[in-house]
Design goal:
single chain; 6-stranded mixed sheet; oxidoreductase activity; FAD/NAD-bd_sf
Length: 420
């Protein structure tokens, strides 16, 4: 079916978007470009949570679900290592058990194949979707230099096996020797034996600036923003009524829920129990001239280093402690130890600032995208886990197509809210 930017006069025109992170902002810009009247709601301001401090990595290569059998034998060591990539707050363990049970159930071979296919469907067109959304601003905010995945301890056969695993899913990847790595990024450590170069991966040197640009574009086309928490959504003959924390109400033709991990309570209110949890991630910033030109991730250390406009960002780790727990400063500062091993120039640096954000993660690593089975005026777009930045623009196209009764370019069955 041919897509059109013209809205049928009989179709709804007013849309509320609950959430002003990267997903909500991409949807907002997509909709105003197609002629909708958009109002964004977020009590935390514009892009002030995960969209503020993420690694800036458009990780199109990450087509494999996080739930993988190979992870199980590594868990004890990961949990016992204070500098390891995973931490579960002891007091939160019981509450997190249902999530982890579902996580393990997704490790079957059949599930792995299904989930990989669904992730690949979103990731492959993601950068092209950003090109369409950003128009001439794409190259201003997105750099297409690829990324590296480094190996310090694996032998050639192990690295080749990983490379072939990616290649089997159509990922454009090249295996580099130590000499190749140092020619590409001469400031990396000689401890790195091999690396995989993902050629069709991009990054943003300031993901928050990208979000603010999206917001400016929304406002320039008449979109509105209200910094309030949406507490309740109800249906009337006039439309969908949004009740705010300040007791004000507003009526819209359509409502899109795109508030990350905070979508859980609204989804429950609308009749859906969604097993979403906060995968808390951290970053540390180093105020230094960038020694690398593209994101460098470590297979051994499970973290990533990204060159930013204002220095070097060290990001990663997974922590389960709940949405409201205080930032665990040590989870951020330990990233410098890992950076010292990969980039010798960081050994003379001190951490300038740290940050923590709550990735909205579901046990099967897939987001929720689609029309509510209970109410055709409610659309869900949340739960993008580590790939919110990557999948923002393609999600916006899918949501906009649904609003315009256009057949989406991707089959949305794997992302339905009632799959759990």
């Amino acid at each position: 079916m041919i897509k059109t930017n013209k809205i049928d006069e009989q179709k709804p025109k007013t849309v509320a978007i609950v959430g002003a992170g990267i997903i909500g902002l991409c949807i907002g810009l997509q909709l105003v470009k197609r002629g909708f009247q958009v109002t964004l709601y977020d009590p935390n301001g514009v892009a002030n949570k995960c969209s503020f401090g993420n690694a800036g990595h458009f990780a199109t290569e990450q087509v494999f679900p996080l739930a993988n059998r190979s992870l199980l034998p590594k868990l004890p060591k990961m949990l016992l290592d204070p500098n390891g990539p995973l931490r579960i707050e002891l007091r939160y363990l019981f509450k997190a058990m249902p999530w982890f049970t579902r996580f393990v159930l997704n490790m079957t071979q059949r599930k792995q194949q299904q989930l990989t296919s669904a992730l690949r469907s979103l990731n492959e067109p993601s950068l092209a979707a950003y090109e369409r959304l950003l128009d001439n601003s794409y190259d201003v905010f997105i750099s297409s230099k690829g990324s590296l995945l480094t190996f310090e301890n694996a032998d050639f056969n192990e690295v080749e096996s990983v490379k072939n695993h990616y290649a089997s899913q159509g990922v454009n990847v090249q295996l580099l020797t130590q000499q190749d790595v140092l020619e590409l990024e001469p400031n990396l450590s000689h401890n790195i034996k091999y690396a995989l170069l993902f050629k069709e991966v991009a990054h943003s040197a300031d993901p928050h600036a990208l979000c603010l640009h999206l917001f400016d574009e929304i406002q320039s086309r008449g979109g509105r923003f209200i910094q309030e928490r949406v507490e309740h959504i109800s249906s009337t003959t006039e439309g969908e009524v949004i009740k705010l924390a300040n007791n004000n109400n507003a009526i819209f033709d359509k409502v899109i829920i795109a508030s990350g991990v905070w979508s859980k309570s609204l989804a429950k209110q609308l009749g859906f129990s969604v097993p979403i949890d906060a995968e808390r991630g951290y970053h540390s910033m180093l105020n230094m001239e960038n020694p690398i030109t593209r994101p460098v991730a470590s297979a051994d250390r499970q973290f990533i280093i990204t060159p930013m406009d204002n220095g070097l960002r060290l990001a990663g780790t997974v922590e389960f402690a709940g949405v409201d727990a205080k930032e665990n400063h040590a989870r951020a500062t330990m990233l410098l130890t890992h950076a010292n091993a990969l980039i010798p120039a960081t050994q003379s640096q001190q951490i300038e600032s740290t940050w923590m954000g709550c990735r909205p993660s579901l046990p099967d690593s897939l987001p929720v995208i689609g029309v509510s089975p209970r109410n055709k005026n409610i659309i869900f777009a949340f739960g993008h886990q580590h790939l919110g930045l990557t999948q923002g623009a393609i999600t916006s196209e899918l949501v906009a197509d649904l609003l315009q009764d256009i057949q989406p370019s991707i089959t949305l069955t794997p992302y339905r809210i009632d799959r759990f």
